[in-house]
Amino acid sequence: MTFSHSTGTRGARKPGRLVRWFNGLALRRIRRRGGRVLGMRLLALTTVGRRSGQPRTIPLAWFPGGEGRWYVVASANGAATNPAWYLNLAARPDDVEIVVDGETVPVRARELQGPERDEVWGRIKDSASQFATYERATDRHIPVVELTRRDTAGS
């Protein structure tokens, strides 16, 4: 399982305080009711901090990948660097859980590569045009991550 960690030389500003405030509201809504915020399907992703070892939770837009699979994008609004949650996933891809549609699900993370990534990325941009805007804002290769339900009995 490989994560690319690519960074760019240009990009939009990373999300600031207003986005962090909004994320707090979105997390409360996801935990209470699940579902959508501003028309986007959101999940709450909990990773383990790669340096701190502490749980870190963030709301993310998700895209369907079939039974027991969800896709998320490490766009950081088109910033030149990857978001912290992506780096946490890269460090501990098997120590992840999501809350989606009111259900807490242990998952395993895998960054998509090559034609598989390109196909899913195209579908994501078709369904949510802001991701094409993020792609134009940076020269970084924006990671697409597949989250797959983990069998808790076998983990």
From TrEMBL:
Catalytic activity line of the entry: oxidized coenzyme F420-(gamma-L-Glu)(n) + a quinol + H(+) = reduced coenzyme F420-(gamma-L-Glu)(n) + a quinone
Residues forming coiled coils: none
TM stretches of this protein: none
Gene3D superfamilies hit by this protein: Electron Transport, Fmn-binding Protein, Chain A
Pfam family, one: F420H2_quin_red
Designated name of the protein: Nitroreductase/quinone reductase family protein
SUPFAM superfamilies assigned to the protein according to its UniProt record, in alphabetical order: FMN-binding split barrel
